[in-house]
Amino acid sequence: MSSAVSGLSAALYQDEGEEYVVTPALGSNRDICFVSLNHATNSVEIVVGGTTAPLSVAISGSKLTVTSANTDGSATSTAKEIVDAINADAQAKTLFLARLPPGSTGAGVTGAMSEVHAADGVAFTGLALVDSGDGLTWQAATGSRYWDPDVPVTVYDDGAEVTSGYTVNYLRGSVTFDAVKSGTITIDGTRRSELALEKVLMLYDGKLKIEGKEIDTSNVDDSGWGSSIAGARTWELNANAFYYAGDVAISGIGVDYIWKFYSIDAISGSFVGHGSIQVMDYISANPDKAQERNITVKGRGELYPEA
Questions:
Q1: Residues 6 or more apart whose Cβ sits within 8 Å of residue 160
Q2: The sheet that has 130-131: what strands, in order across it?
Q3: Which domain holds residue 96?
Q4: Residue ranges for the chain with pLDDT beneath 50
Q5: How far is CA 113 from CA 37, 47, 144, in A?
Q6: Domains of the chain: total
Q7: Is the entire prediction scored with pTM above 0.85?
């Protein structure tokens, strides 16, 4: 049993491997990802002065301070202007590389941000989950998912810690209980930020294949007919052509990342899963023709459509 979305035209994203700081999901093209270099826990702060002043950046030890341009105390520096200022400053970029989240133009004004130390993910406490409708599975909202599976979570029911009787889906950001719950469900943990995802490849002429191995369940009660059920499910993404600009280093074959790719599929805007590059063919083609370079991403665990 298998299914495929043919003619996939997609952008492939990977999780940030360094420690980082992200703005608190401001939206409107205002967000920034500050990537701390060499796995250091450097800190960054954005301040807005009370008198009219230009944009500036400065470092003191392991702290980067960005002073937003302002007019009479109102910030005027856009996210793109802040990113460009940091990356153009020789001292600032010894601590951080700044970039815009995928799809952002950076045209929005970021404003002030309190000092934050870079970390491997974004810690959260008291995150409220929503009942999916059966009282068993409780789900985090979009933007608060992709929990880090290497960091244990703590689950609470009406403020009391729940130590057993549930399973956690880290990728979906959900908790499923063995028995129905009707209280307020909250959770503490660490998540991977979508603002820190990096665009790696543009894929063309691709195919997403989701397959379930058949398990034969035929027996004497089937009156001679065969029967089966779907067993272990796997997913694999193959593209016959891709565009790689070289902006993001591809760490190599077999490195596990969160992969998020957007498709032309009308039902689901994106698919999310853990996976690694298994094959990457660089083909020297006729320069007058499209470059056909093959890539295969093999999934590890669940892949789910995220609207």
A1: none
A2: 130-131, 137-139, 174-177, 166-169
A3: 17-117
A4: 1-7
A5: 20, 7, 20
A6: 3
A7: no
